[in-house]
Amino acid sequence: MIESNIFWSPDLTKELWCPDECYTNYYKSNDIDNCCSCKSFPQWQQTDMFSNISYILLELEIADVKGNNSYLIVQKTLPSVHVFFGVTHQNGFLRRMPRNICDFGIVSVDFTGNRFTEIGNISCLQQLDTFILKRNKLNFVSNDTFVGLTYLRVVDLSENMITTIENNLFRNIHVLNVNFGSNSLRKLDVTNIFIPNKVICDNIYSHNKYHIDITNEENFQLGNVSKIVCGSFTANNLSLSDNPISYICKHIELKTIWKYFPCGDYQFYGSAYNCDCNLGLFLDVTLDVIQRIYRKRADESICNSPEPLVNITIQDVWVNDTYRNMMKCDVIDNCTKTKDCHCQCTMQPSKKRIIVDCSNQNCTRFPDVVPEFRYNFDLVLNLSNNNIMTMDFKDYFRRMSVLDLNDNPISVLADNFNQMDRLTEMRIQDHSLRNLPKSIQKLDPDIFRFGIKGIPCNCDNLWISEWRIYRNASENWKLYCSNYDNKTFEKMFNILKDCDDEDIVYHYLIIYAFILVFVLIVLPFMLSHFRYELAILRRRINGVRNNAQIKWKYDTYVSFDDQNEGVREFVVLELVPFLERVHNYRMYVPCRDSIPGNQVEDNLISNMKISKTVLIINSKSMYDSEKSEFSDNTDDDIKRKARRVEYSYAWNYFTSRYLQDIAIIDFDHSKPNYFNRSKTKALHRLGMTVDICNRKINIKTYLLKFLGRPICLPKGRGFNVW
Q: Which of 15, 97, 183, 309 could form a cystine bridge with 303, CB 3.0-4.6 A?
């Protein structure tokens, strides 16, 4: 007997034996596996064929009348061969698994007709092959229940009260026979129907008490990771929301579906075919494949709906185009149904389109949404005989193939025709258009049916003539000029083509107008705003007066706040020694060099005019005019006013070409907000200021470059620059 069976393992874990009848020439490769998945058996089921094994049914001892506590016992001497254990207790009142069920290498459990309300933890049954809890009181099955049970081959949970089965129930294990028939499911996910890349015998959900909605919550699709689905699905006398196969074909062409279902069949016995759009989705599939993946009995192979196809055989529907076009159904989701705009939405798989008919209503705008479909069908939108004036772009325009806007007072079209590459026909007779959006040039002009009501032929619309001529527009769909009798845009091209010359003149007039506006408004503002910068630039271009250079006595005039101790120390202890003693510059320092008894302004004028440069050391409160609350005399105020006068004379002498240069050193981040702010900002913009705290700049090097060659060098000494 063993010679007539061949070892077979569907997952390299199970050790099964397959009858050699599955290996005849009648079966192909996938069919062999499909045959073995149904006819193979484990050794313990055929102990008469194997002398080295034994199968023993354990006795069950129930410890209480409620069936909560029970134990398994062995009442016979174990033979000296490999022993497989099983347990069977049918039509009892057992509620839980026996307490010591994990102590045996159990391969078979059959508790048919008991009172289990939950399966419990059976993860210890690592050798389990067959698990039957038929006709109990189960209502929920978790996807953790069978995790790790790699030897599991048969699961029968039929005739329970199961309402929920979690998705991916048999993840990572290969079960060959599953039976969930005669339960109370209301929802079923495709992950519990199709087992990808595995061959199974049957997956039964027949005779369910309620209508079942098919879901695909984990977006399982053929063509991603899964290559094939080889097995069977039995849904006899069962009401389903749709054929489950239609949910997993989003990424494949339906006509190639046979590649993904090479074996097995899917039974839907109990009623004739519903020949609506759901079955119509498979019109590209050959009939022999349909009769395998959507199997009916011979007497059920006719249509019971829709009305025009009742009692038509499925064979006739598949070959007759008229019948095929009748395989359609209404779509409710996202189908606009308002008081003034009541649309009818229909899916027609034979033409791969969704038709949205909103004609003869009182619609004033396009629907906000239209039905979508997982296969991205074309959209046919009929809005004829309504009150729509504007065509506002909607996202669904991208999949629109036909648009009917006949008999609408439409005056504006959306300028997004470049995104409507599926459009093959647009009817727009009896419109109120004065022009067209230029994006329409991306499309063929023969798409548009404008009727006898035209558009003005003028210079602005000259491009329409060029578009129609360049794209060889057909004479069947003419576009007339509304301002000429019986003239088309093509015929008016020679008259309108001189518009370009007029446009050039018009464009030049616009350019000149902008220039005039700039000269009259913008330029004066710019000159006023940057007047000090312009004065500095003009001064640098013109250079210093020749007669001024002759009178220079000092290399620089230093203006600073001698009341500020920090500034005074910087000038007297650092600046003066460095410039005068080390580099032989002559400096005029007011607090040191002013002639006693002379007026402050007289000293300022007489000495600044004979200086080559002016160096201003800005500090806080240097130019403040307010009297100090701690001072009893006006001496400080007089000195601050003197420094304000110094700044003004320095600016005037510089711009009048008496000074070679002027520079400002920011000693303590003083803000020139209250005195000569604009002039100081101009000096800053043109690089004539320096921050003493800026570590990137060496202040001594900057000053040597600013002062240049000393006016007078002592005899016998060379000039040394820092």
A: 309
